[in-house]
Amino acid sequence: xxxxxxxxxxxxxxxxxxxxxxxxxxxxxxxxxxxxxxxxxxxxxxxxxxxxxxxxxxxxxxxxxxxxxxxxxxxxxxxxxxxxxxxxxxxxxxxxxxxxxxxxxxxxxxxxxxxxxxxxxxxxxxxxxxxxxxxxxxxxxxxxxxxxxxxxxxxxxxxxxxxxxxxxxxxxxxxxxxxxxxxxxxxxxxxxxxxxxxxxxxxxxxxxxxxxxxxxxxxxxxxxxxxxxxxxxxxxxxxxxxxxxxxxxxxxxxxxxxxxxxxxxxxxxxxxxxxxxxxxxxxxxxxxxxxxxxxxxxxxxxxxxxxxxxxxxxxxxxxxxxxxxxxxxxxxxxxxxxxxxxxxxxxxxxxxxxxxxxxxxxxxxxxxxxxxxxxxxxxxxxxxxxxxxxxxxxxxxxxxxxxxxxxxxxxxxxxxxxxxxxxxxxxxxxxxxxxxxxxxxxxxxxxxxxxxxxxxxxxxxxxxxxxxxxxxxxxxxxxxxxxxxxx
Length: 487
Ligand SMILES: Cc1cc2nc3c(=O)[nH]c(=O)nc-3n(C[C@H](O)[C@H](O)[C@H](O)COP(=O)(O)OP(=O)(O)OC[C@H]3O[C@@H](n4cnc5c(N)ncnc54)[C@H](O)[C@@H]3O)c2cc1C
What we know:
Elements: H1 5-15, E1 20-21, H2 24-28, E2 44-46, H3 51-64, E3 68-71, E4 88-91, E5 98-102, E6 107-110, H4 116-123, E7 128-129, H5 142-148, H6 155-158, E8 165-171, E9 177-181, H7 192-196, E10 205-212, E11 214-215, E12 219-227, H8 230-242, E13 249-254, H9 255-265, E14 275-283, H10 288-301, E15 304-309, H11 313-324, H12 326-331, E16 336-339, E17 342-343, H13 349-362, E18 366-372, E19 377-384, H14 389-408, H15 424-430, H16 433-446, H17 467-470
Parallel strand pairs: 2-4, 3-4
Antiparallel strand pairs: 1-2, 5-6, 6-10, 7-11, 8-9, 8-10, 12-14, 12-15, 13-14, 13-18, 16-19, 17-19, 18-19
Helix pairs in contact: 8-10, 8-13, 13-14
This protein binds flavin-adenine dinucleotide.
């Protein structure tokens, strides 16, 4: 595609000067999401404000044969918003309005670029909130949450993002606009809104989203429980749920994670413990003390050393701040790391966690983990020196091996972050060719030309461009050059 001045002028006429970014520096800022191991420069970045503008852009891209990659806040951890085939990166950050909020019927229509936490702030005066709470919620967008089907600490009890989507207005591959689902809880369509949730921008651009709002719980109790052995903590999680209690959240941090968070935030985390759980129960105030008592008893039976219930909102906030800052705490090490998103049945958490440490240690690498333990969803981090080729390769191999352990234990390769670019090589390990072909046929039905977020989720295209390979001397791919061919 030759991006002539006339084409750029046409796009600017539609979006205004500040709605089209084409300088090398601006494009460079959008070359990756939070999985920085995968990179790719967009040819142009566009920032529409409305469904009509998105429709016009996609119509134009369809006619011109230009790939379109949608992006919200770019906090995705699987490379889903990385424009590795160039083309147009369609960023929704200026589509950040609440279009309607109906407190009685408990829904809101929002634009996709609205930040998750902002919706709950706006719903709070009505006693409502948006329940899905990825740890990225102060930054990540509702559109990105729906497209990735994000989870979060409280999704254990309240369900993942897809469970909170009622309706969608979507721009399809040719620029046509359709409405799927609606405001009623059980719209009489073919459940197509559910198909779009989790499709990572490959089936259409989500432009207006009707989400369910739910009442804020009357009361909340948050507990911190620590253990001398991480395997005991894992077994305690399984035992609590097996006893018929469904806490709002059950999160685990291991010692390395606590050390990194503590060095940063000084929260008084129990650094002599092998692991700590945050267990939260919510609901009618009268129902909670009995649940806290039962959870205390079960965790003690499984080796808990101490159980503390946060005495006030400040203590509760500090516990959550520690957990939700874990990812950033790894970033502060100055080392590179891989982060996995495997799941296993809760009852197998202890086995997988032992495997994580053993596999990393065998390759001389440091590992730490945090988990949405109640969901059996673990995020091991394998640390490595980015300048050491051998360590880097070893970290990637250990990561793949960990995911294979998850598969062998009856789990899978992604609990919430999606497939993006990162996990394409492993799709063939969990799905048969016929399964993948069925997914591919669905995709072709929505996007026959393959221009919507091409090369994501399904195997078959050229292999993902690894950042390291891109940095090899002699790699002359213009897409890896921030100044690019035309700036
Ligand atoms: C510190 C940190 C903590 C995190 N914690 C969690 C967590 O607890 N749970 C969790 O699930 N994830 C978590 N994540 C991952 C990430 O925040 C989520 O996947 C989130 O949903 C991405 O939202 P985003 O707005 O950043 O989307 P992006 O990263 O911009 O995009 C994500 C995907 O959605 C597509 N997309 C974006 N907008 C649209 C649209 N309008 N139409 C169609 N497709 C679109 C993109 O193409 C991409 O495939 C975390 C990430 C970080 C950095």
